Amino acid sequence: MPNNPHDRLASPAPLVLRGRRFDARHPAVMAIVNRTPDSFYAGNRHSDLDDALTALETAVSEGADIIDVGGVRAGGEGAWVSAEEETDRVLPFLLEARRRHPDVVLSLDTWRSEVVLACADAQIDLVNDTWAGHDGELATVAARIGAGIVCSHTGGLPPRTDPVAITYGDDELDVVNDVVRGLAVEADRVRAAGVPDERILLDPTLDFGKTTRHSLTVLRHSADVVALGLPVMQAISRKDFVGESLDLPADERLEGSLGATAVAAWLGVTVFRAHDVRATRRVLDIVASIRGDRPPARAVRGEAPDGVEATLLRHPRG
Q1: Quick check: pTM over 0.85?
Q2: d(CA 250, CA 209)
């Protein structure tokens, strides 16, 4: 008898935010809304508030589960942005998004605790800390306002530092081991600050503190991160490791991003930060159905209509 392939698949822990549960049956699409004029992907520059709110409505209509807004470019290029300016960029959007969509899960992409506190009135559900606890108060503030938090891995680099001459050792798996150890330590730290497991999200943070080869290795070992027993996010969309793997600019990286998304979803990752919401939603749904976690939306092909006896087919013996 053939083995059940589902027995070998990771059973990821759920993420629960604003009463919604995200797991292998319903992986989450985290839509990106960048309130910056200099995002690496020109298609997601929404410095104008009306433009950002239009992006919000589009994301919700296309099936986004979480809206992630950021006010500072992640990489080292571009001008420095103060905490005050960052707040001015994100707070009006968050307040209006909460007013328009009371049930939507809102995520704030920041490493600064003062920005989180300034935006507390928007009822933030998740703090997306891309810089691995650089601000030691961030987890405490997230717990205080009842938000979840993203634990990231950046190899110890400070905010907005691009990787240069990065190594984790001679063995290919050294980077995976460092990611797993680092995320476990960070998860323990935010637990101690008062954030419960169901609101802790692990992000291996591809490209941050990593070469393209590192990111590819970490991605194909996503199941090792899932095995830590907490929900896992991958931020894959149009990143440099996709572009360098295929030798393509950011605006031509959709197919590569979706292929990587399908692999990570198969391995048990349940949250995907994405620029292309509709396409990502469809990829995650079909992977969940192939894994056996999600029933097909419609299954009529070859089924017996009402009142008709099913035909049992068997391969003829030779």
Answers
A1: yes
A2: 19
Q: How many CB atoms lie under 10 A from the CB of residue 256?
A: 19
Which of 207, 200, 251 minimizes the C-alpha distance to 230? 200
- For residue 111, the Cα-to-chain-centroid distance in whole angstroms is 16
Range list of H helices, 21-111: 49-61, 83-100
Q: End-to-end distance of the chain based on CA atoms, in angstroms? A: 19
The C-alpha angle 273, 120, 95, rounded to 5 degrees, equals 70
Q: How far apart are CA 119 and CA 107, in angstroms?
A: 11
d(C-alpha 53, C-alpha 47), whole Å: 10
**pLDDT, tens only, 158-210:** 998 889 999 999 999 999 999 999 999 999 999 999 999 999 999 999 999 99
Distance of CA 309 to CAs 301, 305, 306, 314, Å? 15, 8, 8, 16
Separation CA 153–CA 187 (nearest Å): 11
Q: Which residues belong to the active site?
A: 239, 273
Q: Concatenate the DSSP letters of all residues of 29-45 into one string.
A: EEEEEE--S--SSGGG-
